[in-house]
Amino acid sequence: MENQAVSWKKVFIIAGAFCAFWIGSGVATGQEALQYAASNGAFKGIATTTLYSLFLIFMVYILYGVGQREQFDNPYDVFEYYCGKYVGQIYIWFSVVLTYGIYVVMLAGSGAAIHQYYGISANIGTYFVAILALATAVLGIAKLLDIIGVIGPVKILFLSIIGIAALSTLAENPGILVVNSELIQSAGFESVSSNWIWSAVLWALLGLIFGIAFFIINGQTCQSVKEARIASILGVCGVFVVNTLLIISEVVYLDTIRDQQVPTLAIAKVVAPFLAMIFAPILILCIYSAVASLLLVVTRKFAVDKTKKFNLTAIGLTVVGMFAGTLLPFAKLVNIMYPLSGYAAIALMGFIIYKEFINKNAFPYKASGGASVQNNAK
Predict the structure, then answer these.
(1) Which residues contact 221 (CB under 8 A, 6 or more apart)?
(2) Which one is predicted more confidently, 329 or 18?
(3) CATH code, domain with 322
C-alpha cells in the first residue's frame, strides 16, 4: 500500500464531501450531539463522541477501501458482498427505506431552521431545500462531490465558531460546565440512551446503514485504496472536532437551548446577532448538501445518475419527501429514525467483521457480469 498513488487534492475533496454528508441536519442543528451525548452531561458526552469517532474510523477505513478496490456496478451491491444474496437483499431494501427516512428527517430539519430564524413557514422552507437538493442530485455524483467537498470545511468552520464562543464563556465561568452537566440530565431533552457507551455504539452504527452506499461511492472515485482510507479518516477527524465543540456549547448554554428545535441557531443568536445572520444560511447549506447526497444515494438504487430514469425517480422521491417532512416535529423524527438505524446495523457489523477478519472467502459475490469476486486484500 505504501506505493499507492495519493492525490492530496482528491483526499481533501473526499474528506470534505464526507463532512458535508455527515454534518447534515442532525449535526448542524445540534440535535444529534444533544440526544446522543450532551444530554448525559459534558464529560460523558465528550467520552461518547470520542468512542463514537473511533468506531466510525474503523468502519469508514474498511468501507472506503472496499469501495475503491471492488468498484461495484451499484453501490448497494456491498450488502450482498458482505451478507450473501438473501440476507444482502434484505439489507439493501432496509437501507433504501431507512436512508429515505433520514432524507425526510433532514428535510424536516431544514424547515425547522428556516422557520426558527426567518419566521418563514417551515413547510415552505422544506420545499425550498428539497427542490435545491433535487437540482444538485441530477447533476451526477462527480459534480455533487465537487460541490459538497467545498461545503464540508465551511460547515466545520462555522460550527467551530460556536464552540469557541462557548470556550470563552467557560473560561470566564469554569464551574458552569460541572453545574450544567448535572442539570442537563434532568432538563427533559430527548435522549437516545442514559448509558454513554451504548450511545456511542448506536451513534456510530447509525451511519453504517444509511451511509454505507455513500462510503462505497466515495471510495470508488479515489485512485487507490490508500487515498480512499486517508480521506475517510481525515473526514472523521473533522466531524469529531465539531461534535466535541457542540457538546461543550450545548452544556454551557443550557438555558438558551431549552425548547429549541435548532440549538445551534439559538446559541448563535446569543453569542452575536451578526453571527446568527451568517450562521442561518450556512446551517441551511449544511442541511442542503446532506439532503442532496442522500437523495442521490437512494435514487442510485433504481437508476444510474445522469439518465432520464434517474431524473424522473429523483423527482418522484423529492415530491413525496418534501411533504412527508412536514408531518412530525424535527426533534421527534430524529429520536425515532436515528436509533432504529443503529440497532439494525449491529448484525451488519458482525457480517463485515466476519468477512474482513475471519473468513475473507465468505459469501462469494457475483458481479453483474457474472464473475465471482473475492476479497483480495491489498
Answers:
(1) 10, 14, 141, 142, 145
(2) 18
(3) 1.20.1740.10
Query: Predicted confidence band at 261 (pLDDT cuts at 50, 70, 90)?
Result: confident
Q: What is the pLDDT of residue 340?
A: 67
Q: Are the C-beta atoms of 154 and 21 separated by less than 8 Å?
A: no
Alpha carbons 103 and 290: distance in angstroms, whole number:
8
Q: Specify the number of domains making up the chain.
A: 1
pLDDT of residue 371: 41
- Is 97 inside any structural domain? yes
Q: What residue numbers bound the domain in which 165 lies?
A: 8-355
Q: Which has the higher per-residue pLDDT, 78 or 25?
A: 78
Question: What pTM value is reported for the model?
Answer: 0.80
Q: Which residues contact 224 (CB under 8 A, 6 or more apart)?
A: 4, 5, 6, 68
HEC string of the chain?
CCCCCCCHHHHHHHHHHHHHHHCCHHHHCCHHHHHHCHHHCHHHHHHHHHHHHHHHHHHHHHHHHHHHHHCCCCCCHHHHHHHCHHHHHHHHHHHHHHHHHHHHHHHHHHHHHHHHHHCCCHHHHHHHHHHHHHHHHCCCHHHHHHHHHHHHHHHHHHHHHHHHHHHHHHHHCCCHHHHHHHHHHHCCCCCCCCCHHHHHHHHHHHHHHHHHHHHHHHHHCCCCHHHHHHHHHHHHHHHHHHHHHHHHHHHHCHHHHCCCCCHHHHHHHHHCHHHHHHHHHHHHHHHHHHHHHHHHHHHCCCCCCCCHHHHHHHHHHHHHHHHHCCCCCHHHHHHHHHHHHHHHHHHHHHHHHHHHHHCCCCCCEECCCCCEECCCCC
User: Which backbone phi and psi does 366 adopt, to 5 degrees?
Assistant: -105, 115
Identify the pLDDT of residue 143: 80
Cell of 277: 445572520
